[in-house]
Specification:
With 457 residues, the chain is α/β, with parallel strands linked by helices. It is 25% helix and 27% strand.
Amino acid sequence: MAKKVKTVFFCQECGHESSKWMGQCPACKKWNTFVEERVNVTTSGMGGSAKSSVTKDVSVPVELAMISMQAEERMCTGIAELDRVLGGGIMHGSLTLVGGDPGIGKSTLLLQMCRMLANAGRKVLYISGEESLRQIKLRATRIGTFQERMFLLCETNLDLVEEAIRRTQPEVVVIDSIQTMYQEEISAAPGSVSQVREATTIFLQLAKGLDISIFIVGHVTKEGTVAGPRVLEHMVDTVLYFEGDRYASYRVLRAVKNRFGSTNEIGVFEMRKEGLIEVQNPSEYMLSGKPVGASGSVVVCSVEGTRPILIEIQALVCRTNFGIPRRQTTGTDFNRVNLLMAVLEKRLGLQIGDCDAYVNIAGGMKISEPAIDLGLIMAIVSSFKNRAIDERTLVFGEVGLSGEVRAVNMAGQRVQEAKKLGYETVIIPRVNLEGMEKVEGIKVIGVGGIGEAIDLI
């Protein structure tokens, strides 16, 4: 058997392989995504491709009705916010990808998870390709006390990592990070498309074959996506993104793919010197420091999965000093704000087309749910007319192009969350009043259009 080195081109988005460079990928239709890599190809002595002499087991199709199904017992991590995002806990034999910006707290969160699992009697293996054993030990002592079931390994050779996993037989494995793993048979550099794809394939086989739950840490690009081919996200069972400003104290864990649960759940954490602390009541945390009696400030209720969260929307509208008014948004869709301002000008006759407008979601959250449309409308009008909205009033509802206020889901849970935090009045779509149970101790007002809502200011 002889090895021959040849040059191939891989698409960084989907992993498509080509023998020559192409401007557009024929698989995913992305432009300028092909990168050149050198790989080793094993050939036979006669110049043909070699065939394995090992006889493989023949896979036999199984009838669906013959498959026995029983409830899978999940492994609780001891971190309620993480369990919520995972769908109730760690599924045995699952492969989970955790992405996020550098320094956001990915390694800290997974190390805390390992600590809770080890203290609960689970056998955990933490494999690091970026830090030494002493560095991990220093970070671990800051988090807390670890039991004897926690094992560490600093290695980047994929063959040695696979051997260590098979020899140790842990229940949970953490790989930090996938971009540092390499296989000697592949001549490409660690972190390249072929190396990342090969490493993910091996970890997927280990997870399914040995029934081990594996967590993979992935670096992100400047666009916010996991570095490497997009096929990496397609191969894993769950993709978690750790979001937030690294200089702020809060962190948001969000699932963008989950084969074992919902993708709408989020977990909220606060970064402290002893590690990440769960935020049990995000609504109260997000509303801390809200101004009293200030115009342009309104509280809305957004639902993330099954959790209603109260968030403050701030707007500042003023006359522009330039020919073209400036619009800026933080935490919400820029085009959506422009659309709602056009609805205000067309349907209510407000002359705000020549005004600068600045909209901010307080607390740093990123919200794209249509249920905050009515809150955006009222915050803009409140700032434009310089009239403050009662701080004990909460609003939510979707706004259409005709100025109508449309129904939203989970209206009852939103009202209950408002009552729990002491709000006295809730402005909701009139359609949601039908069939909703009456909530004692809070006034619920239904509106059919934005004109009715503005009259309540």
